[in-house]
Design brief:
Elements: H1 2-21, H2 32-57, E1 64-67, E2 72-73, H3 88-100, E3 107-112, E4 133-138, H4 140-149, E5 153-157, H5 162-176, H6 181-193, H7 200-207, H8 211-221, H9 225-228, H10 242-251, H11 253-266, H12 272-280, H13 284-291, E6 297-302, E7 305-313, E8 317-322, H14 328-343
Parallel strand pairs: 2-4, 3-5
Antiparallel strand pairs: 1-5, 3-4, 6-7, 7-8
Length: 345
């Protein structure tokens, strides 16, 4: 009797165990391999969410790569005058890049599709072109320095349309305030001539500029060569001169040119302001009066090139002005030199 009772008890326990094992996977009894298999989707969701969060944190970040400088070339919208690569500021930048072993601040480029006419450098054939080339969005001087030094160039890479490239290049230059009005005007004029923008107003609105500022810059860029070559560099041209020089070009160019050339023969080191005054004088007598209105002017030169001037008048006092920002060592030397001169009195 006792044996039969024990056998029934074992059978009941076995039946309960069997019933538990046969429950659907959704029950609370899920365990072991079954639980692992049903937990996989949840793990995948968690991993996916982590990847999405990481992607969101990196949203907007651009890939940074070191490229062979020979595979990167100037933009078709490049607005640097050749004299910008001869300035003391550029020499100082190049030395800084040399001592650092490369450009610490990346330039920005866009990839040029393989097979595009833009992917062939001037003087090269399509067969000789590298597999991938890049066009500069901004950072032309940093790239030129790396190229001349034989160093790779650190870059940010972004695929941009022509309009996006133009807008980013302009924004970068205006934030850095290192483009002359004439260079800015050349850039704007080229964009208008090539149809990148339908009008000057549309260009200004897209770039967030004042239309009058764009108009004056373009006017400087469109001045006749006969006027521009009178200055040591077109970068000497100032925005406020745009209207009178444009008027001169349309109404009395030959008279103004004759007056300025006569003055330059007598004084080859005339300052940009003096050349402008000679150009815009209405007649020879007026030209004499305007030219001599500020006789206390001395030109500062470096290597035969005008780099600044010392002006003095009753209203403004004495001013030392350089046409470009000086490298820090030169700035310190100039300040010390002025102080030494003052100490003698």
């Amino acid at each position: 009797m006792r044996k039969r009772t024990w056998e029934k008890t074992e059978a009941a326990i076995a039946a309960l165990a069997s019933a538990e094992n046969e429950e659907p996977p959704t029950s609370r009894g899920r365990s072991g391999i079954v639980r692992y298999m049903f937990d996989l989707p949840e793990q995948a969701r968690q991993e996916r969410d982590a990847l999405v969060a990481a992607a969101n944190r990196l949203n907007g970040a651009l890939p940074v790569r070191t490229l062979d400088a020979s595979c990167v070339h100037a933009s078709s919208w490049a607005n640097r005058h050749s004299s910008a690569f001869l300035s003391q500021e550029y020499v100082a930048l190049k030395e800084e890049i040399r001592s650092s072993g490369g450009n610490v601040q990346p330039i920005k480029v866009r990839p040029i599709p393989v097979g595009s006419p833009r992917a062939v450098l001037p003087g090269a054939t399509e067969a000789a072109a590298p597999a991938q080339q890049y066009e500069i969005v901004y950072g032309h001087r940093r790239h030129r320095a790396c190229l001349e030094l034989g160093l790779p160039v650190l870059t940010l890479i972004e695929d941009l349309s022509d309009a996006q490239l133009f807008a980013q290049m302009d924004r970068e230059n205006r934030q850095r305030e290192d483009l002359s009005p004439w260079e800015q005007g050349v850039m704007y004029d080229r964009a208008l001539q090539e149809g990148l923008f339908p009008s000057m107003r549309q260009l200004a609105e897209t770039l967030g500029c004042n239309t009058a500022t764009v108009s004056r810059a373009v006017a400087l860029a469109r001045l006749p060569d006969e006027i521009v070559v009178l200055f040591a560099s077109p970068m000497d041209l100032q925005t406020r001169w745009a209207a009178p020089l444009t008027k001169l070009a349309s109404e009395g160019l030959q008279v103004g040119l004759e007056q300025a050339r006569t003055r330059l023969k007598g004084n080859p080191r005339m300052t940009p302001s003096e050349i402008f005054a000679a150009l815009t004088a209405t007649d020879s007598a007026a030209g004499n009066r305007r030219f001599n209105a500020n006789p206390e002017t001395s030109t500062l030169c470096l290597g035969g090139r005008r780099i600044g001037e010392v002006l003095q008048d009753a209203k403004s006092g004495t001013t030392v002005r350089f046409y470009e920002k000086l490298p820090l060592p030169m700035f310190s030397a100039v300040a010390q030199g002025i102080q030494r001169a003052l100490d003698k009195f």
